[in-house]
Design goal:
Radius of gyration: 26 Å
Number of domains: 3
Largest sheet: 8 strands, mixed
CATH topology of the largest domain: Phosphoenolpyruvate Carboxykinase, domain 1
Strand order of the largest sheet: 1-6-7-8-10-9-4-5
CATH superfamily of the largest domain: Phosphoenolpyruvate Carboxykinase, domain 1
CATH class of the largest domain: Alpha Beta
Number of strands: 23
Strand content: 15-25%
CATH architecture of the largest domain: 3-Layer(aba) Sandwich
Structural class: alpha/beta
Shape: elongated
Length: about 500
């Protein structure tokens, strides 16, 4: 039991408070309360209803005080008034008051100087069990002096009946009041909202201290061995992709492609809800802004092809329902050389959906020495902060559309692409999708160069990265040392440039 009072927890009254219980105590209560089912290997399984993933469209921040000037407002960080927060906060307090509750205290952050002390107030043992897994557990002596910097109230069983009146997305709400150091959760049984909530706050607090927060996790085995999931690919492909993603303040998801990855792991799946007696769709990581498909050619062609519609049309069709993706959605993928063991060639149709391809090879010895120097104390990614927001990208897209391109240059682009279809050693040339990509990328290049219109030089500069990966080479040509890059280079030399 606990010495915590209702006043300590900010509640009107409280039943039994179970504070910082052990795993055995939590497991016993989960079982006796019939909160879930025990699997064959002894794991507690819990039905979280229709939400088995986060609900980013239901996440809000109170627009007030100094925090309003530090947030990048938009589709990710959506504002809500202090009046709506206070109304829902009072409902959460009323809902939790008088109940038997579970309280869990934990640290977020591996660095003692910058970590935060978080408290979670929940209604169910399994919710306390979940956050006990997610955060660093204070020692007994640390708990004696523990004073939470931030409190999360989880009223999963409470829904917002007035969500339409409030102008919110649904009856679910996850609202952060930065000035009061409080988050309230209602209407969703997904435990990850508690973890995501504190991580969200770390992404607010640390940059103010000029620290870039980085999310990593570790598993500790029975023998004390640790597996830390935080690493770099050999030549920097993943690092480069992550750096690009970090530079944009948007919803970022990463998928590690493996041979056993299934399409449902990417797109999502419909699960039968026994309570509602109906199938409900749970979104996969493809429903994000920036999707990093790491080592994409380690998955089977069937799984790779799961991204075709998303990349080509910005939507996902499942269960006879068409689900649009966010307008900002795009994919960054890395792949290993096809000669590596355990890799599969990407389907031609999918290669055609990537706008650009860049290859990273080994660097010089001098450059490698510089990498050692740069990472002698910390990784450069740790100091990388977002330099553009969701809205900034939207404005850049509008700027690209405004760049002029002459009819003669459009014909020049088409002539280049058509020439690849007739080039020696090419089985399948570039498609009209390549022509569109060259035009759009050339316009973007002109914008970044500060111009108002596309020049032939813009087209030539971008042609190889846009076109080469779309070509299917004849095996004999490959064995003779000819590659797609050289084909595009010859085409650029041969096709007349408009005057």
């Amino acid at each position: 039991m606990s010495n915590l009072t209702a006043q300590d927890l900010g509640l009107k009254n409280v039943g039994t408070v179970r504070h910082n219980l052990s795993y055995d105590e939590l497991f016993e209560l989960e079982s006796s309360n019939a909160e879930g089912a025990i699997s064959e290997n002894g794991t507690m399984m819990v039905d979280t209803g229709k939400f088995t993933g986060r609900s980013p469209k239901d996440k809000y921040f109170v627009r007030q005080g100094p925090s309003a000037g530090n947030l990048a407002w938009g589709n990710i960080n959506k504002p809500v008034s202090i009046e709506i927060f206070n109304e829902l906060y009072d409902e959460v307090i009323d809902y939790l008051s008088g109940k038997d509750l579970y309280v869990l205290d934990g640290y977020c952050g591996a660095n003692e100087k910058t970590r935060r002390q978080a408290r979670f107030v929940t209604e169910y043992a399994w919710q306390s069990h979940f956050v006990k897994n997610m955060f660093i557990r204070p020692s007994d002596s640390e708990l004696q002096e523990f004073a939470p910097n931030f409190t999360v109230y989880n009223a999963a069983g409470l829904t917002n009946k007035n969500w339409e009146k409030h102008g919110l997305n649904s009856e679910v709400f996850v609202i952060f009041n930065i000035e009061k150091n409080i988050a309230i959760i209602g209407g969703t049984w997904y435990g990850g909202e508690m973890k995501k909530g504190i991580f969200t706050m770390m992404n607010y607090w640390l940059p103010i201290e000029e620290i870039l927060s980085m999310h990593c996790s570790a598993n500790v085995g029975k023998g004390g061995d640790v597996a830390l999931f935080f690493g770099l690919s050999g030549t920097g492909k993943t690092t480069l992709a992550k750096a690009l993603a970090c530079s944009i303040d948007a919803d970022f998801q990463r998928i590690q492609f493996t041979p056993d990855l299934l399409p449902a792991d990417i797109l999502g799946v419909s699960v039968f809800n026994q309570r509602e007696q109906a199938f409900e769709f749970h979104e996969g990581p493809v429903f994000s802004n920036i999707l990093l498909a790491d080592e994409i050619n380690r998955a089977s062609p069937r799984t790779q092809s799961a991204l075709l519609e998303a990349m080509g049309e910005g939507q996902v069709s499942l269960d006879s329902v068409r689900r649009p993706l966010d307008p900002l959605f795009f994919v960054i993928a890395t792949q290993n050389p096809i000669e590596f063991q355990g890799t599969y060639p990407l389907p031609e149709a999918q290669m055609d959906r990537f706008a650009l391809r860049f290859s990273l090879g080994y660097i010089s010895a001098e450059e490698e020495v510089q990498i050692l120097s740069d990472q002698s104390t910390r990784h450069p990614l740790e100091s990388l902060a977002a330099v553009s927001s969701h809205a900034d990208i939207g404005r850049l897209r509008e700027g690209v559309c405004a760049i002029a391109i002459a009819e003669e240059l459009k014909r020049y682009i088409v002539d280049l692409v058509v020439a690849t279809r007739q080039a020696e050693g090419v089985l399948i040339g570039a498609s009209p999708r390549a022509s569109l990509a060259v035009m759009k990328c050339a316009k973007a290049l002109a914008l970044f160069d500060g111009g108002d219109f596309v020049t032939p030089e813009h087209v030539q500069e971008i042609a190889t990265p846009v076109i080469a990966h779309r070509l299917v080479m004849d095996p004999q040509a490959r064995y003779s040392g000819h590659d797609a890059d050289s084909v595009v280079a010859k085409v650029i030399d041969r096709v007349p440039v408009p005057a």
